[in-house]
TrEMBL record:
Belongs to the class-I pyridine nucleotide-disulfide oxidoreductase family. It comes from Flavobacterium frigidarium. It holds the Pfam family Pyr_redox_2. Its EC number is 1.16.1.1. The gene is merA. It is an enzyme of class 1 (oxidoreductase). Resistance to Hg(2+) in bacteria appears to be governed by a specialized system which includes mercuric reductase. MerA protein is responsible for volatilizing mercury as Hg(0). This is Mercuric reductase.
Amino acid sequence: MSQNIEKITLEINGMTCNGCSSHIEKDMNKTNGIINSNVNHETGKGEFTFDTNKMGKEELINAVNSIGNYSVVNGIEKEDSFSTTSDTTISKESNKNKNQFDLIVIGGGSAAFSAAIKAEGLGLTTLMVNGGLDFGGTCVNVGCVPSKNLIRAAETAYHATHSNFKGIKPRGVDIDFKQIIKDKKELVSALQQQKYMDVVSDFENLTMLKGWAEFVDNKTIVVDGKDKYSATNIVIATGATTNIPNIEGLNKVGYLTNVSLFDLEEKPKSLTIMGAGYIGLEIAQAYSRLGVKVRIIEFTDRPLRSQTSDITDVLVEQMKSEGIEILPNFRAFKFEKRGKDTIIHCNCPDGSTTQIIEKGHIVVATGTKPNTSKLGLENIGINLTKSGQIIVNKKMETNVSNIYAAGDVTNTPPFVYTAATEGNTAVNNAFSLSKKSVDYTSLPWVVFTDPQIAGAGMDEIEAEAKGIPFEVSKLDLKHVPRALAAQDIRGFIKLIRNTETDKLIGARVIAPEGGELIQQLSMAIKFGITVKDLAESFYPYLTLGEGIKLAAITFGKDVSKLSCCAS
């Protein structure tokens, strides 16, 4: 049969680097009917030449949509549990073709869904407009869910090769890397459906639209430069993406971020990770334990610079023991290709320069930036921080009276659970006389390295800066019976109390599964529990939680000299 050749150009969401475009090209060129694929992540477009005798336009678009977390903007979108139309609108029949709403939510992640759920409860007609990542946003698609799944897989591999007990000799592990990634993809897909799409599937007043929103005025947006929609109030919940540093040659050599790294089904030869914040550290340890040689380049003096050095010292010792190379005070200033290798030119701590050779991939984990550049915020005069975050108060209000913002796009703590609270708060305050505020005083957080790092409230540096009279208790895990029984004494528990009130004002934990302690400490801070109360409460013996009691006792006694039964 003769070929009937046709060429089509599609706009594709979700690409961040050369790896993304190469991924799409590789998969599409294997598809029956595709003659040639040319995809450019910088323009966000893909040009496909295909034989119409073997596939139609709709099949081609569906083939692109089935690859990773990418999706076609112009054309027929992939099917999901909602009805889908060719203009990319996903909506209930009763809401179709309506351009006027009570509420417009821009974004599709945790803050946006929380806002939509609250709005449905209030009986508000709501339009959710989402561009970029698929509905569900960062957490379920490319953040919390996939990263923690890989971290747990990596822990399983590590414990199959390492033992804390002399009488137990591990025999090693066989790692099917491709299967791990496939399982991760299945989990992401299932949770994206169950925890997001299914939750709103029976909403009577919600319309969901795929596209890029831009403000015309404070009550009107235009989507993809075509259709206009208006609402009484608008919530901006567009999240954040990886901040790509402006370094010579970086865009030319190609790089990965968490968006593209987590979809690689072929195990990388090695990784050089740019940045030692929590994202870079979690990635480094997970991939190292899965058999990848890992290097971290950090331009400050130590990883996780936001935490005190006693915490980071414990983590650095562990990571180095696992073979992870950490280069603090190194600053990359140029990238170039030499054959298949990537050459990283760096300034060294002593002022000299060096060349680092990476045979695998570069991973950029140098923080995030808010997704505000394409919103047309200049048209409505929204106030931003120097880094581009939308400035909100504790009621999620911006400086424009009917515009609210929530989640990682704002100047608030960047966690999925804070985003959910903020989305709900924003809608409540937009449509209710009873205003609510979000209080971050006792906010708990966890870094999922091993040992885990967790915190709530302020640390000693913050307490000193605020002029609060304080005292610190620090208990090494070698004094906690549970840690001794497990023969794993890495880390410590640190409590900070107000010496005038004896109330707990902050806590930091670095310990295996230390994150499981932090909610209790957060609640103690929130409800004004004193250190005396913590010391005198009952704790099950041989639990890590008992370390809280011992840390509280340490303010007044040397626990190393106490019996296990003492209080």
